[in-house]
Every structure is written in C-alpha cells, then in structure tokens.
C-alpha cells in the first residue's frame, strides 16, 4: 500500500477538541512527521534487505538439498510401495485416500517436489507412475504458481489425466461412495484425485502444503511405524488408548490393518 | 519426534499379502532402508543448518533495526497522541479499544517491542505512560516467553496494574457494557485491558501478534489516513462505499468521527 504524508490525519478530529496549539507546536509536529517518515523508510529498506538475505539462504540450501533429494528418490525406488505406504501412514493425507485410489497409488514409483528458484513464487509436485490399469500418463504434475513475483494471481494447474475406459476414479469413486451412503469426512477434499484435479483455491491447498512441507521433508518417518506405536505394543497389552480417537476415524480401513494386529498379538 | 529404524513397518501387512519375496529382495529392501535413513539424516542436518543461518540473518537485522526504532520512538514522542491514534486507526486493534480506554491511552507516551536475542524464544511489549488518573505504573509490560528454547511451556505475563480507586477499567468497563446491554463484538478479547491482563493462551495471542508484526513494523501508516480515504474524498462526493462494511461495524464509535466528517463535507 502506498502511503502519503498529507495533512489529512484522522486525529485532526481529536486535535480539534483540545486547546488550540500554537503555530510553533504544529510546525514541530509537521517536522516530526517528516522525520518519522524518513526514519520509517530506512526501517522498511532494512526489512527489504533482510527478506532478500533470507531468500538467498533458502535458495542456497535448496540447491544444497537437491542432490540429496535425488539420491533419496533413487534409494526409495528400491523399496516397493514406499510412497503409498508413507501416504497411508500419514495422519492427514491418509484421510483423502480411498481404498481404490490406494490400489492405484501402488503404481506410484516416484514423488518429487520441485520448488521454483524463487521459492516464494511456487512449486511443482510430480507423481511418476509405472504402467498401470488406471491411466495412460507416466507423470501427473500439479503446478502451483503463487505469484509472489510481479503480483500475479495465484494459480494451480494439474496434468489432464488420460483415464482408461471406466477407470476414471474422479467419476466412479464419488458414485460408489454416494451409493454406499457413506458420510463425507470433514475435509475440503474427499478423495486423492479430487484433490489433484481441483484448482479452485491454490493458496489454501492444505493437501499440497502437507505434501511439500511435511511428507517431502521426511517421508521415512511416515513409512516407518511411529515410535509411539512401538512403545504401546511393548506396554502391557496396551490397546493404544492415546490414539484411539484417530483409529476411530479410520474404521473404514479396519480390514487393512487386521493382518498387522494379528502379528502384534 | 525420535524415529527408529525397526523392522516393524506398517507395510508388512501389505507385503504379506503379496507373493513371497525372495530373501535377496528383502535384504535389498533392508539395505535400501538403511541408506535412506542415512540420506534423510543428511537432509535433516542441512535443514537444521538452514534454520540456524536464517536465525542469524534475523538477529543481524534485529540489531541493525534497533537504533532506527530508538530514533523513531524519540521522533514519535514529539507527536501528541501518536500511538493512540495509530491504534484507533488500526482496523483490528481498534476493535478492542473501548472509548474510556482510548482516553486512558491518550497518556501512552511510548510503545516498544523488544524481541529476545533468540527471536524465536519470545518478546516484550512495553507501554510507557505519562502520569495519568488511571493507574500508578509508569510502564506496563506484557512479556511473552514462547519457549522455543529448551522446550519450555509458552507463557505470557503482564505487569500488575496499580489502578487508582474506582478507575480499574477491567472492572468498571465490563459492568458499564453489561448495563448498556451492548452486544459483544465477535472477538477473543473485549477490551484493551482485558487483552493486556489475559495470559491464558500465550501462543494464540492475536492482539500481541498484531502489535508486534504489524503496528510496530510501520505505525506511521496507521497514524496517517490511508490513501484510499483521501482518494474517496477527492471523488465526486464519494461516501466511501468500499469501506462501508467496515464503517457499519463501527456504529458505536459514530460520535467520535462526526467532527471528521464535518470537516470532509
């Protein structure tokens, strides 16, 4: 916002209520305001410089991290079902993943978050898929252009998915869910592919942010069983009361963890 | 969160469902997990270093800004009613300021935000008052210790106010407001001094954050009439439709702006 140092202060009203000021006092006030304006400009300039330096640090580390992320991706490709497992284990991401989508993400071979060189301006999330029965694409990308540069309007776009006949999960899944009368979960997006294809509100895309700022930072922690659970299994027959609330949310996936519970008991 | 590389992966369940893997395949997977863990540790270490460098930049600029803030405070003290005007003009802060509190804040001579040397660990907001009919204190400080260091619990504390007899605005104001049957505004805090004395939720103290991250960064912009309004006065008799919504919120303060409107017409 551009500001003007004009004599039209809101406090003129209150000034008017007070005993009249001498011309000297008013002149000093006016001088003080000019001095204040130039002092504030110096502070603003420092803030600008601070932001720039911080951006530089972030860019430097982005470049330093890049080879590690590449190496990490190569290692991950040696571990079957790594990404789908990490997503299934992620407390928030798992909530948008429908069972059939989980089957589809078994073919997710590589996930990649690419930040723009000016990291404030946006990022891409690339999903690389093996050949699969659902769609023809090898890569599905959701691109975020957050427009910090040049004050562009924030937009996101997603690769159009070339679904195989009758395998379009954005069409078949909602129908199935409606037919089964399943209550909606309290979430902005109902399914993974609904999230992927929805570009209505790019600056409030919680799922994209979770992928970028949480899953991508350390997917291993989600692939592995969290500490807490391991400790609870060691507890005397502990049924894991602490995360009972979470489990209750996931009743629908109950079948999928049965094997695991058999193992634990 | 501490993580362990244990053989208890959640995906054991799904692995079990699949055709049995050869010992070789399992060994490779296990090797890959170890490589992944060490690669992730290197990424974590880089992230740690990035955070430290960013903190250093912030500390450097905090030190560089300090003399300008001091100079700014000296200049501001030459401008009568500066802080109370800036607060009254601030769209959010003004909403917690009751009329009688505004009178009290006319004695607010200096405002200061002091960040801890480790800026993540907290900050103080100092309100310096001239001698006034409300309380004896010369300085009212609200201190935030956000406990980023050593994982302390976040706490805030406020200087106990030595109110003069019958001038305790935390007691007289709520009574008056209740007597007048005034509906509460939709805000966490109802009055300025209720905010100041309330330390129940230091990490979600919106008002403190507005003072620190908005008002303190550039109080001049709030002291001055925003551009928008000036332009609207130049418009043909413009009644300022754009911010009519805001004005409607402030009906209660209508008397206070009458003088100003007279001047404008």
Automatic annotation (TrEMBL), chains A, B:
<keyword id="KW-0175">Coiled coil</keyword>
<dbReference type="InterPro" id="IPR002164">
    <property type="entry name" value="NAP_family"/>
</dbReference>
<dbReference type="InterPro" id="IPR037231">
    <property type="entry name" value="NAP-like_sf"/>
</dbReference>
<dbReference type="Pfam" id="PF00956">
    <property type="entry name" value="NAP"/>
</dbReference>
<feature type="compositionally biased region" description="Acidic residues">
    <location>
        <begin position="228"/>
        <end position="265"/>
    </location>
</feature>
<feature type="region of interest" description="Disordered">
    <location>
        <begin position="227"/>
        <end position="265"/>
    </location>
</feature>
<dbReference type="GO" id="GO:0006334">
    <property type="term" value="P:nucleosome assembly"/>
</dbReference>
<comment type="similarity">
    <text>Belongs to the nucleosome assembly protein (NAP) family.</text>
</comment>
<feature type="coiled-coil region">
    <location>
        <begin position="29"/>
        <end position="56"/>
    </location>
</feature>
<protein>
    <submittedName>
        <fullName>Putative dna replication factor/protein phosphatase inhibitor set/spr-2</fullName>
    </submittedName>
</protein>
<dbReference type="GO" id="GO:0005634">
    <property type="term" value="C:nucleus"/>
</dbReference>
């Amino acid at each position: 916002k551009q500001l003007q140092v004009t004599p039209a202060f809101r406090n003129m009203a209150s000034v008017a209520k007070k005993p009249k000021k001498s011309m000297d006092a008013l002149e000093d006030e006016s001088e003080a305001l000019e001095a204040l304006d130039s002092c504030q400009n110096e502070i603003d300039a420092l803030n600008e410089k601070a932001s720039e330096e911080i951006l530089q640090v972030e860019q430097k580390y982005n470049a330093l991290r890049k080879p590690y992320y590449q190496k990490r991706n190569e290692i991950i490709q040696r571990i079957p079902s790594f990404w789908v497992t990490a997503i299934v284990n992620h407390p928030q991401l798992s909530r948008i993943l429908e069972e059939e989508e989980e089957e589809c993400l078994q073919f997710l071979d590589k996930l990649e978050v690419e930040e723009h060189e000016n990291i404030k301006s946006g990022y891409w999330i690339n999903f690389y898929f093996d050949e699969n029965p659902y769609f023809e694409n090898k890569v599905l990308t959701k691109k975020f252009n957050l427009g910090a540069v040049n004050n562009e309007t924030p937009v996101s776009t997603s690769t159009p998915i070339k679904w195989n006949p009758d395998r379009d999960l954005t069409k078949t899944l909602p129908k199935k869910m409606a037919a089964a009368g399943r209550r909606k979960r309290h979430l902005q997006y109902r399914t993974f592919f609904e999230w992927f294809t929805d570009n209505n509100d790019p600056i409030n895309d919680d799922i994209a942010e979770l992928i970028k700022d949480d899953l991508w930072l350390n997917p291993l922690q989600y692939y592995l069983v969290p500490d807490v659970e391991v400790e609870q299994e060691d507890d005397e027959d502990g049924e894991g009361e602490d995360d009972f609330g979470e489990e209750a949310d996931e009743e629908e996936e109950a079948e999928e963890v049965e094997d695991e519970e058999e193992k634990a008991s």
